[in-house]
Amino acid sequence: MFRHVKQLQYTVRVSEPNPGLANLLLEQFGGPQGELAAAMRYFTQGLSDDDLGRRDMLMDIATEELSHLEIIGSLVGMLNKGAKGQLAEGTEKEGDLYRTITGAGNDSHLTSILYGGGPALTNSGGVPWTAAYVDTIGEVTADLRSNVAAEARAKIIYERLINVTDDAGVKDALGFLMTREAAHQLSFEKALYAIQDNFPPGKLPPIEQYAHNYYSMSEGEDMRGSWNSDENFNYIADPQPAVDGGDGLAKVDLPAKQQKAVDAMAKRTASDPLTDPITGAEAGSKKSY
Q1: Does the pLDDT at position 94 exceed 80?
Q2: pTM score, two decimals?
């Protein structure tokens, strides 16, 4: 059950209207690293988690992400407030109004015209939000690792947004949101490592024959580190197909009737390596062949 509290989780103070900045902030409203995507990711995970402690954590963070969505939406609304009124009332000449909402070459005219200056569930490029942003897979250790990465990506987006504005109030609110991403990342990591058997994900063990091999798949000298060290891996400098000892060819056993059809098709569509046909491109060329 949810109840809405009219006060924001963090106070929004905007120094002046800025439709272009509002459009950039939509990245965290309806973008892949945004607050709605995060809320839906953790909400769906929490609903199916049988561990009561993790369930509470996921639902708490999901609910906080909705609070953050409200903060970002409020920032977008305040930054667009002046343009929204001008668009609605037509208080400026057409050319002047267009220049107002497209100052500094931004794309805010898209959201201003289509959504009246309100926060739209799109990213900063106008691409609509999609549930495809929610990458929950239903295996807790995989999902928690994904959550850690999602919080890290969101923090970086907030850093970039902070770096493109000099509005003190906006920077202050974005700094709070950025900090909460780091806090959530820590919670998810703690929850992950509280699971004693958290690697590898799932129940089935890796195939021992391949579990500790590192295959060098590039030409030239490899940089060596813990990720491919002899202490942690069997370093195989020149892996040749097939590493299972087979011939590396794909095979399938077909029923006789299907095999006959496949053989007939292969014969009918076979290329003749002894021919050198004149092509349409050659026929139209000035060069004589």
Answers
A1: no
A2: 0.84
